[in-house]
Design a protein that fits this description.
The chain is of the alpha/beta class and 382 residues long. The protein contains 16 helices and ten strands.
């Protein structure tokens, strides 16, 4: 009997049962004590809506734009590493679901399926996310590959110059390649549906990197390469050079402070993403929703502001839009859907969020997402 799915939490529980522990925990964890990871979700709760009545609620629309790109609702799929290990060919499946839904899919540098894999298997353009590595020749070629795939937007991640520690990954032996233990082997063997999918695909490694970065021809050499490649010297001058080298639309991800938002606004970028990397980097930092309002107030409309972190429902999306975000990104919710039910699970995730967003907007007395602002929130709760 097929499970009844009513909310994102239903998808999470199903994914937890169907995805090997080390890969599920990779997605569903934060750094150190996980304080910020938990706050990303819990800080939405105190924000309250003003319910309005006797308002014409017909002919509603969620259509909007993000970074100048048309979207059916102000939601994009966030870049997430190892997506193709949540489900075989995961990036392709998620990109297909997003394209059919009319929202952007963002491919991670550290994806399992490569830029070319996704481009060859989907009909709609997708966005590309870049980590800045020490090997700048590799980065230049990576950007050329994204241009060749006609990616319309580059998402440049700024908050991974060094890696935050995630205890679950150490305990589970998640590395490149994963540490083989008896417990891991038994756990993977118990996930029959997942295992059959992985046996049926050739895409199991980091295909954006292996065979493209100098000296990286397999998982062992990848481990050595990746351990030394995150670039702690990344600064705003590098951001300017990357912006100029890309030459297209660019969005900066990882902005958590109004001072950094001010600098970004002065660079003429197409957007910034208020993001603490899903609580996976600096534990003890504010939640994304807490950081959003001061940043929106600081940049004053000079740059488009997006956010990610803690979105688990359409109501969360509506609260973020009300506080000034032009759009939001979902990571874990779509990964839960992917791990639970594949492409159909990603579609189900998007359907849940769209319905919750649409109904909640209507009950706040609004028919157009463009009309949503702080007036739909109870004063003193945000």
């Amino acid at each position: 009997m097929a499970p009844t799915i009513t909310c994102i939490e239903d998808l999470r529980r199903l994914a937890q049962r169907r995805v090997p522990r080390m890969f599920y925990d990779y997605a569903d964890s934060g750094s150190w004590t996980e304080e910020t990871y938990r706050a990303n979700e819990s800080d939405f709760v105190p924000i309250k809506f003003r319910q309005r009545v006797a308002v014409n609620m017909e002919q509603r629309t969620l259509a909007s734009t993000m970074a100048g790109e048309a979207v059916s609702m102000p939601v994009a799929i966030a870049p997430t590493g190892l997506t193709g290990l949540q489900r075989a060919d995961g990036e392709i499946l998620a990109a297909r679901a997003a394209g059919k839904f009319g929202i952007p899919f963002t491919l991670s540098t550290m994806s399992i399926c490569s830029i070319e894999d996704v481009a060859e298997n989907v009909d709609q353009p997708f966005w590309f996310q870049l980590y800045v590595m020490r090997d700048r020749d590799f980065i230049a070629k990576l950007l050329d590959r994204a241009k060749a795939a006609q990616c319309p937007v580059l998402v440049l991640t700024l908050d991974l110059q060094i890696m935050g520690q995630r205890h679950k990954d150490i305990i589970n032996g998640l590395s490149a390649p994963p540490r083989v233990t008896l417990a891991n082997m038994f756990n993977m063997a118990s996930k029959t549906r997942w295992g059959l999918g992985m046996l049926g695909t050739k895409r199991r490694g980091f295909r954006n990197v292996v065979g493209h970065a100098k000296g990286v021809d397999g998982m062992t050499s990848l481990s050595e390469w990746s351990a030394s490649q995150l670039d702690p010297t990344l600064d705003w001058d590098d951001v300017k050079r990357l912006r100029d080298n890309w030459g297209g639309k660019i969005v900066l991800k990882g902005i958590m402070d109004p001072a950094d938002a001010e600098i970004a606004a002065g660079l003429g970028v197409d957007g910034i993403i208020v993001s603490n990397h899903g609580g996976r980097q600096l534990d003890g930092a504010p939640s994304s929703i807490e950081a959003l309002k001061p940043i929106v107030d600081a940049v004053g409309g000079r740059v488009e502001v997006h956010m990610d972190g803690g979105i688990r429902s359409g109501q969360d999306v509506l609260k973020a839009i009300a506080l000034g975000a032009k759009g939001v990104y979902i990571g874990r919710p779509y990964l839960y859907g992917l791990g639970a039910l594949g492409e159909a699970g990603v579609t189900k995730c998007l359907e849940i969020i769209r319905k919750e967003l649409d109904v909640s907007m209507a009950l706040c007395g609004k028919r157009d997402i463009a009309e949503v602002d702080r007036s739909i929130l109870v004063p003193g709760t945000f």
